[in-house]
Each structure stands twice: as C-alpha cells, then as structure tokens.
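User: Let's play a game. I give you a shape written as tokens, and you guess the letters that built it. Ready? Here's round one.
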C-alpha cells in the first residue's frame, strides 16, 4: 500500500462502489488486514491517521475479525502434530507447546494494548466519529474484553473505564460510556462463533457475578440523572442498558430471544436491596409517562421483567406484597389515564405486563392488596375494549384471557372474606369474546390465510385454551346467532361455536362442579355438533368442499371429535361417562360407544371421499382416524363397522380421490399406517393379502414398465405413492408375526423394483426420499419385530438388499454436481442412508461375520460407500443440519460399538477426521448426540486400554493400526479428556453418567496425561482454591482400580458426581 490516501480510496470503493468487480478487487486487496496479525499495528496507524469513516471502519472490523478468530489459533496444534514424523514427534510437540504458550502470552499483551488504545481513542476522537464507526470500535473493545476475560485481569476493568466516560462534561462522552456498557452486556450474553460454549458460559457466569449488578446500578443512576434531559438519545441508551441487564441469561438456559415467552427471571440474591427499593419500580413507571414510543415500550419491557422475578428473591412475604402493590398501583394509573396505549407496541407490551400477574402471583395475593377492586374493574374494562378491537389487538388478547383464566381457576383456593369480584366481570368477558369473534366474521374478510383469525391456528388455540375456564366458571355458555343470509358467514360463525364447544369438552373436570352435571352439559353441547354434521354434508353444503369457510367448519368439527374422544370415547372412558350417554340417548338415540364411533367414522369417510385439494382437512381427518385405530378398545370396535371394512378393502384412488392428488402424497403414509393398524389387529394372513391387493396391482404395473419408459411422470408419481404407502404399512407392523407377513409379501418378488427405482431416479429427491425412508422403516427392529427363526437366512438376505440399495444410491449421488439447495439434493438422502445402515447394523438380526467368512462384500461395500458419503460432507454442514447431525452421530456410535475394526483400518487422516468430529459432537448442546459421541469415544478408548495399555504388545492388525494412529497424533486422547472435564466441571450437563464412561477409559490409558490435565485445571483456578481442589482430584480416583469392569465404572461415576459437586462449590 503506497499511501494512506490510496487505502482510503480503496475503502471508499469497498463500501460504496456499485461495481461488483471493483468491490471484489478492493476486498481482496484489503483482506490482509483481517487475516494477518502483523497488520494489527497497521490498523492502529489507520485509526490514528485516516480521515474517512470507511478507512476507520476497515481498521475496526479487521481488528474485530482478528480478535474473534485468534481464539481458534491454538487448535492448529492438532494439524501440525499430524504432519510430524515418528522420529521427531516427541521433540516437535514439546517445542510447539512452548511456542504456543509464548505466542498466547504475546497475543494477550498485544490485545491488552489494543484495548487500552481503543479506550483512549474513543475518549479522544469518539464524539467526532460516524455512528457506525463508533459502534464497530465499541464492539471490538467488548469482544476483546470477553475473549480475554480469564487471560489477564486488566480485561475486567472495562466497566470502571466506562464510568470515566460518564463523568465527562460532554453528553457525547456520556453516550459513548452507555454504548460501551450496552454492548458489553450483549456481548457477554451471546455465544460467539470463535468461542466454545463451555468457555462462553464460564465468562458469562463470571461477568454476571463480578460486573452485571454494578452495570445495572449504573443504568438506574443514569435514568435518575437523565429524567429531565430533553434529549431522548441518552434516555434511550440508559433504558436499553436496564433492559439488557434484566434480560441477561442468569442461569444459562439459552432462552430464545425471538420469543416473547419466558419463565421466572432468576435475578441473583445480591440484587435484592435494589429490587426491594420502591424507587426501582417507580423509575420505569415514570419513564413510561414522560417518554414517547419506542422508549415508553422499553420502560414497559423492563417492568415485564421485574414483574417476573422469582418469589425467593424477596426478604419475606411482606416485601413481596409491597412490591406487588406497587406494580398494581402503577398499572392501575396507566389504565386510568390511558397514557400511551394508543400506540400499538405500548398496548401489546402492557398486555404482556398484565399477563405476568397470571404467571407470578396468586388470586389470594391480589385480593389482599389495597385498591384491588378498582384495579380488577379497570382490567375488566380494558379487556372488553381489547376484545371489541379484535383487529387491532388480536395478538395481545391472549395475555388478557390467560390472566382471567388463571384468576378463575384460583377461586376454589381463595380463603378469607376479601371478594374476588370475578362473578361480576367474567360473564361480560365471556360474552364479549364470543361477540367479538362473530364480529370478525361479519367484517367480511376475503378468504385468504393472512387475515382470517380462524386460519391462525396457533393464536386460535392459545385463546381457546384459556376460554373453557371462563365458561366453566359460570357453567353456561350463551351464544347469539347472527345474520344467516350468507352461507359462508354462517359457516364461519358455526366454526367458532364448534371450536368453543370443543374447548369446553376438552376440560372434563372442573374444580367446584359435579362430574354428573358437567357430563349432562357436555352431552347437550355435543348433541348440537353431531346434529350439525347431518346438515353440513347434505343438500347445498355438499357442494361447498372447495370453500374455505366450509373447510374451516369441518376442521372445527374434527377438533371437537378429537377432544370428545379423549374425554368420552378413549380407552380410559369405555366404562364411565354414563350420564353423558344417557343424555345423548335421549337426544339422539346414541346410547353406546359403537353408535357414536359410527358417526365419527362416517364423517371421516366423507372427508376422505369429498376433499381432494385441501391438505389441511385431509391431514386433520387422518390424524383423528389414526387416534381411533391405534386405541386398543376403539380399534377393536372399529373393525365391527361396515364403513371400516369398506375402507380396508377398497383403499384406491377411485374411492378416495385425495390419493391421486400430488400435494396430498405425504398424507398417504398416515392413511396406510392407519389401515395397517386395522389389518394387523386380527393378524390374519388371508385378510392381509386381500387388503394388499391394490398395492400389488401397482407393483405389477411398475415392474412391467420397460427401462426406456421408467423416467416418465406417471411412473414417478406411482413410485412415490407406492413407497409412501408401504412405509405406512411397515410402520404398523409391531410384532414378529405382522412383520413376517409384510416381509414374505415383499421378498424376494418385489425388492428388485426398489433397486430399479433408486438407480433410475437418483437425481430426483422427490422419489429417492420416500423410497429410502421406507427402507429405513423396514430395517428398524422396533419391538423386536425382526426376529427370524434360527435356521432362517432372512436377516442376511435383508442386509444384502440394504447394501445393494445404499451402494446404488451412494455411488451415483456422489458423482452428481452440487445444487443450490445441497441439503435437499444430496444431504437428505445421505442422512437417510446413514439411518438405514445404523439401524441394520444395530438391529441384532444379522451375523455380520458370515460376510467376511464367505467372501461376501455386502458389508464392506456398504461401509465403504457410507464412509465416502460422510467424508463428502464438510463437518460444518454436518453440524448445521439437525437431522443430518443426528443420523451421522448415530451411525458413528454403531460403527465404534460393533465395527470398530473398520474404523481402525482407515488411514490416519481419515481416522483423525472421524474422531475429531466426535469431539465436536461432545461439545454440542444436544445431550443425546453428546451421549452417542461419549459412547463411541469410550469404545475406542476401551479398545486401546484392553489391547495396548494392558497388553504386552499389540498383535491384531486393528490394535497395531490404532497404536500407529496414536503415535502419529499423541494429543488425541488428552484433548478429548480435557474437553470432557471442561463439560462436566463448567457446564450444566444432563448426561453426566454417559460422559463418565469415556473419562475413566481415557484416564486409565495414561495416568501421566491425567496428572498433566489436573495441573492445567488447577492453574486456571484462583490460587486460594488450589489445595481444596487438589484434594477433590485425589478423591476422584479413590478406590478406583485399573480395570473397566462394570463395578469399577460405577464406582468412578459415583466419585465423579461427588467430585463435580465439591469442585463447583465456591
């Protein structure tokens, strides 16, 4: 770079140029600043001398990237050690560790220097910088602080340095100080890509204990000082800082910040004096009054957090009652004045604040607060206005209904003479809700999914889940009929009524009401729905299946059937509910379960015959059908019905047109899963074969199709449908006998079609996915259904078919070019293959030694192609896609458990890659995956211990290969052991038992490695704790022998539990 001016010009082009080629050139030229540590001083020079904001932005962002990615530098040890020869390995590793220690020390000093420089730079030039430059510099400063938190105590002085800005005379410096604290809290609360999750939690916990309370006090002090400040900029920063402190992840639960829902706020006990001080709550109520949106909304958000603090935080009940009274007074004053509630965001946040009373306080506490009667009346009036303004407040009503439902459910437990006044207000709210829902229909919304409340399923269920408690509270539901001049309006109103009845029937028991009276009421409500069905599927209504209003009504009826079944038809209700059936007999002549089931099944059959394009109605119908068929008693009763006999014998597209609709193809699996339940309930080979005849005709048609015509759309649709159908049938086989019926029907006659299909359609995931998913289900040995006779070769024959299928798919998909959506195009099929192979290998129905004994390459070929597929996927992609992650690590667990020789015979680079991926899995947040990785590591370490550590010399080829791998990479086991200790000691792991297994195996491999690791961990802890923690380590191995038998493992696990508890005690 010849001059600073040239660099500034390049930066201008990098950030502002419209020419992509010019931007790319600038980016490539300036890349060195962000990847080379030698340029850190150059970045400092740019900050000192550059005049344009874009040059300053380059320097700041480059330093940020340097800081973030330098934490990864120490991981290069593994790669370097892989390149060492055996003769120089020991010396190279020793020298490298010395260098790394020196480099780490130098980097710490360098970044300390950068941190001090940034503080001085912001103090001197901060007020004159562009806001985006200031923000970038502050982010860099806070990132430095977080990454160096445990490296040098000077990194922890940032809070003190920030207060110096607050004491400056200018408001610009004050703003910079608040911005630094805002960014610091955010940085400490959010995981970083360059920082392991275990280290992030350690830093966050240390920051919480040492600095967060001080920052919260600073934010409160700032709010007090800035109350009269006419400029809202500083007020906004101070409010934002308060909210960030109150929203901190205090206990490491990793709450989704995009969600509005959270549990109790676990504020530390040290904050108690400030929270019990009335001025803390009052400052936020004051700011709500004196500010405009969006600042007023942030003040409400802070109040929502404060209203959610844990009960145990307060000194006693009196302090908590005082806090509650203050909350009620503040919210009452807002309702009295209506201040700020015309703003939608304020309105929604205020409803959330009222909703927190539902979560954190009991009715008995509320009624004893002075002024309760005024407060509850104002809340009731506010609720009614909200219900009337359903278009404006639809997403906010949920919090209000939740509050009222919680209040009425607490009435039976209310003691004392203080009146709740709910009798006066709840009926009005119940009526207001129903009326407002009718008004939403009368508004005449167009039939699209964006506007109609009936289509917002999640919001609909949230509101209706609260509603039954309000209805039950009065034991009546008065609903008005509206204008019946328009059918769609009537259907929509009826849909609301049916949903409400369904919600009432769902809650069978209600405190304070007799069960008999509830059954009679439910019978009368249910009779109206059952009568409605006769009307909605006859006359003019039978021509309206394409209308959205008709579909909404039928979905409401299906919801009613689901709730009614669970309360009055399910297996638990077969001998109860006498009052309900007595009343239904009087009203409709339905005196037992069988007659009622016939009505439900009739509606199911009608929906499946008449709906061809509404996937929502089809899926909902099939869900109800499956619930009935899978119940033991209800399933037996279904077989007595003529409608069911017809469905089982005639499941073709002629009778059920939805089977021909491509958009409903996924529904076929559920349809045939249900039919399978019904077929196998009798376990009759004759009935099975006759029921499978429609699928047999599809097989015959596809098998007779020549190769030249096998790539047509007709074949494609038929093959997709057939695979989905077969998967449903396979899912229903839950015993050796039923599985045997399906196996004998498929093998060997029809298995070649699967191989033909996968070979011709490899490049079409729409075909390969259902085909592979069927095979994944077919090889799954659930409930020990794959148990063949001792003389049967079926297990071996099945695996040979699996091998052919995986080899055919894998060899072809690997040769295909990558597509834009690589997950759908390649990864999805690959992870299903991993699942197929893992299930087959772990199914315990194949003697795999037979393949090698007789020279059959079925096993070897399947493992080879599976390995190639795993190596073709970058580890970052494996960890990025959840289903791929689960399948990959489940496959590795099986390999390390039953086929470890295959792993050990790989070359060292491939072996290290696979074991390295296990270490990544151990660090993940998914405990199931972590446990699978732990089991795999344990099998590997146990193999080493039993065959190398305890043996005289490795003799088997597998043991020799493992010894060679470890010689070429001696840090492998120590690194994994270190990771396991960090997880157990510094994280709230839920699978400690699983992690303890590989820990013992790794410790027994080398006691010296364990001693070195013990020393490292002690060094990272405060000096005054060393003696206590050293004793903890000694106890860890107390009474633990050098063996891996079950008793010794259990002893170590017990010791580890005690060790972890004592280690974490402060």
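Assistant: Ready! My guess for every position:
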């Amino acid at each position: 770079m010849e001059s600073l001016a040239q660099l500034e010009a390049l930066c201008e082009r990098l950030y502002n140029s419209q020419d992509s080629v010019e931007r790319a050139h600038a980016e490539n030229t300036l890349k060195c600043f962000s990847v080379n540590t030698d340029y850190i001083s150059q970045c400092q020079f740019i900050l000192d001398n550059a005049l344009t904001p874009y040059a300053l932005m380059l320097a700041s962002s480059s330093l940020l990237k340097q800081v973030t990615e330098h934490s990864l530098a120490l991981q290069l040890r593994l790669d370097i050690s892989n390149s060492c020869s055996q003769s120089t390995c020991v010396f190279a590793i020793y020298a490298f560790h010395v260098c790394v220690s020196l480099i780490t020390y130098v980097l710490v000093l360098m970044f300390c220097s950068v941190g001090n420089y940034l503080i001085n730079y912001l103090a001197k030039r901060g007020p004159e910088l562009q806001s985006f430059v200031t923000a970038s510099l502050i982010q860099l400063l806070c990132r430095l602080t977080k990454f160096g938190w445990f490296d040098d105590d000077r990194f922890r002085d940032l809070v003190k340095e920030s207060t110096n800005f607050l004491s400056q005379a200018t408001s610009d410096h004050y703003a910079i100080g608040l911005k630094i604290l805002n960014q610091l809290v955010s940085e400490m609360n959010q995981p970083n890509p360059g920082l392991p999750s275990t280290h992030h939690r350690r830093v966050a916990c240390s920051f919480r204990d040492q600095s967060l309370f001080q920052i919260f006090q600073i934010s409160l002090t700032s709010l007090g000082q800035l109350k009269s400040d006419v400029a809202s900029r500083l007020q906004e920063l101070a409010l934002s800082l308060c909210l960030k402190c109150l929203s901190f992840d205090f206990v490491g639960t990793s709450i989704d910040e995009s969600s509005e829902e959270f549990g109790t706020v676990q504020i530390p006990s040290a904050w108690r004096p400030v929270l019990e001080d009335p001025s803390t709550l009052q400052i936020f109520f004051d700011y709500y009054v004196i500010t405009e949106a969006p600042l007023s909304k942030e003040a409400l958000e802070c109040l929502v957090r404060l209203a959610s603090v844990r009960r145990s935080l307060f000194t006693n009940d009196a302090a908590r009652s005082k806090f509650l009274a203050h909350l009620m007074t503040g919210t009452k004053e807002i309702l009295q004045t209506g201040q700020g509630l015309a703003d939608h965001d304020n309105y929604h946040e205020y409803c959330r604040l009222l909703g927190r009373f539902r979560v954190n306080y009991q009715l008995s506490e509320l009624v004893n607060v002075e002024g309760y009667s005024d407060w509850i009346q104002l809340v009731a009036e506010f609720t009614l206005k909200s219900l009337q303004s359903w278009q404006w407040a639809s997403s906010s009503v949920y919090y209000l209904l939740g509050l009222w439902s919680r209040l009425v459910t607490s009435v039976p437990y209310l003691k004392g003479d203080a009146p709740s006044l709910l009798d006066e207000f709840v009926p009005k709210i119940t009526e207001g809700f129903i009326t407002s829902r009718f008004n939403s229909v009368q508004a005449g919304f167009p039939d699209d999914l964006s506007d109609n409340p009936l289509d917002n399923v999640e919001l609909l269920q949230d509101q209706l889940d609260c509603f039954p408690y309000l209805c039950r509270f009065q034991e009546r539901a008065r609903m008005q009929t509206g204008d019946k001049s328009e059918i769609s309006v009537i259907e929509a109103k009826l849909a609301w009524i049916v949903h409400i009845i369904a919600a009432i029937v769902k809650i069978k028991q209600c405190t304070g009401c007799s069960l008999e009276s509830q059954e009679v009421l439910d019978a009368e409500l249910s009779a109206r729905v059952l009568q409605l069905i006769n009307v909605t599927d006859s006359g003019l209504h039978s021509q309206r299946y394409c209308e959205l209003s008709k579909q909404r009504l039928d979905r409401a009826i299906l919801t009613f059937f689901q709730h009614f079944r669970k309360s009055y038809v399910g297996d638990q209700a077969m001998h109860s509910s006498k009052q309900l059936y007595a009343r239904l007999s009087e009203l409709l002549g339905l005196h037992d379960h069988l007659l009622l089931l016939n009505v439900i099944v009739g509606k199911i059959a009608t929906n499946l015959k008449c709906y061809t394009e509404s996937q929502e109605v089809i899926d909902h119908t099939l869900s109800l059908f499956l619930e009935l068929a899978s119940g033991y008693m209800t399933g037996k009763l279904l077989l007595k019905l003529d409608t069911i006999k017809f469905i089982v014998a005639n499941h073709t597209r002629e009778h059920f047109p939805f089977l021909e609709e491509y958009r409903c193809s996924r529904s076929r699996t559920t349809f045939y899963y249900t039919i399978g339940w019904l077929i196998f309930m009798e376990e009759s080979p004759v009935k099975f074969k006759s029921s499978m005849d429609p699928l047999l005709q599809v097989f015959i048609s596809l098998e007779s199709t020549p190769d030249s015509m096998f790539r047509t759309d007709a074949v494609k649709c038929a093959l997709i449908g057939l695979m989905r159908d077969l998967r449903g049938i396979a899912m229903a086989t839950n015993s050796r006998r039923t599985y045997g019926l399906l196996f004998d029907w498929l093998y060997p006659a029809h298995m070649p079609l699967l191989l033909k299909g996968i070979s011709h359609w490899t490049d079409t995931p729409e075909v390969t996915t259902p085909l592979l998913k069927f095979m994944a289900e077919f090889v799954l040995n659930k409930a020990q259904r794959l148990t063949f006779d001792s003389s049967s070769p079926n297990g071996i024959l099945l695996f040979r078919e699996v091998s052919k299928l995986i080899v055919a798919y894998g060899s072809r998909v690997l040769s295909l070019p990558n597509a834009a959506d690589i997950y759908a195009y390649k990864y999805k099929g690959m992870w299903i293959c991993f699942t197929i192979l893992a299930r087959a290998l772990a199914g315990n129905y194949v003697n795999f030694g037979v393949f090698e004994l007789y020279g059959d390459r079925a096993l070897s070929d399947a493992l080879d192609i599976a390995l190639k597929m795993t190596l073709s996927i970058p580890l970052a992609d494996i960890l990025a896609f959840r289903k791929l992650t689960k399948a990959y690590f489940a496959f590795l667990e099986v390999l390390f458990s039953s086929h470890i020789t295959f792993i050990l015979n790989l070359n060292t680079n491939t072996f290290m890659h696979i074991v390295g991926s296990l270490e990544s899995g151990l660090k993940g947040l998914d405990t199931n995956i972590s446990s699978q990785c732990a089991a795999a590591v344990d099998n590997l370490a146990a193999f080493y211990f039993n065959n190398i550590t305890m043996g005289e010399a490795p003799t088997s080829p597998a043991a020799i290969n493992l010894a060679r791998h470890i010689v070429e990479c001696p840090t492998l086991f120590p690194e994994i052991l270190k990771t396991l200790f960090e997880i157990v000691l510094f994280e709230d792991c839920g699978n400690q038992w699983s992690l303890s297994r590989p820990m013992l195996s790794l410790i027994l491999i080398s006691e010296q490695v364990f001693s070195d690791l013990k020393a490292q961990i002690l060094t990272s802890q405060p000096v005054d704790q060393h003696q206590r923690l050293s004793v903890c380590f000694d106890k860890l191995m107390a009474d633990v022998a050098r063996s891996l038998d079950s008793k010794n493992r259990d002893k170590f696990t017990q010791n580890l539990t005690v060790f972890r508890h004592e280690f974490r005690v402060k």
